[in-house]
């Protein structure tokens, strides 16, 4: 078709000068071009079909080798015993390193994540707890990190996610910990003050917020439901477009969508997934105030995994209330050349006016130079607890 249009234009122009001869010549010129295009397209499709067969055969072969890995490990108790996040991170980094286009790194990482997820599920699907109900950004983070072959378990609160993983009813949990615009989610950090669980991974999810309702008309909206953080992320847009509407914070964006589907005068701010689940129409979006709006999630589990080669370690440090206490416990990091990515303070449970510090540093706790720095920190007399060492999120 791309060659046929120009041929018609030539024929029409020539018809003004030499009606009979030009029209005939144009038709003869157009006919071979159409035939050639059809032959080329058929040949290209044949090549694609052949490549698809090779891809399918290779995926099946990979799945068979994954079964061999399972046999080599012997009969284990559950799917979680076969899962190795450090190995998956290494595979995905190799995918990025090899990529010369035309597909983006993100696309190829997603494809390989799904292949690995399906191969692992041959043993048994991983059970992943998340802040529900269905349609939340936490559920998106589950599928981004574990693939769609994992079994996502919607739970009522972040506390329940921790409880289900600790009890063994879920293999891992995915919980939000900070947003690029709104900062740390304190309720998640507070759970680590009493929970024995470890951090096994992290997920960075680009978050787009949409205003959605049953009618799809902004004129009908008198109240807006959303999670408190999402309302904060869209504060400027709401002030400009729905200043008079009532804003109601709920436990999750999916819960907001569930409520909005029951009334014509209500709307929800949530991701598109929640809108699809609850049958809402998009009024406007994306409406987040910052174009780089990203939420970081933590993967929580019951054990520490080996190094992947590009890792981050999280620590919980509780110091005595005395001058220089925090400096003394952190000084070994600087001396050993370990970079500190983040530090956050929270009131320590059960001790008035004492604080615990959540710290993220580069490297894996079992590898130098961080291992040497940690040994000195733990010998300082202060309480230093390892919360986890895990692969840095794949970009």
UniProtKB/TrEMBL annotation:
Keywords: Amino-acid biosynthesis, Aromatic amino acid biosynthesis, Cytoplasm, Isomerase, Lyase, Multifunctional enzyme, Phenylalanine biosynthesis
GO MF term set: chorismate mutase activity; prephenate dehydratase activity
Site entry: Essential for prephenate dehydratase activity: 295
Domain spans labelled ACT: 314-391
UniProt domain Prephenate dehydratase: residue ranges: 127-302
Residue numbers spanned by region Disordered: 1-34
Catalytic activity: chorismate = prephenate; prephenate + H(+) = 3-phenylpyruvate + CO2 + H2O
GO biological process, any: L-phenylalanine biosynthetic process
PANTHER family: PREPHENATE DEHYDRATASE P PROTEIN, PREPHENATE DEHYDRATASE-RELATED
Protein name per UniProt: Bifunctional chorismate mutase/prephenate dehydratase
Organism: Solilutibacter tolerans
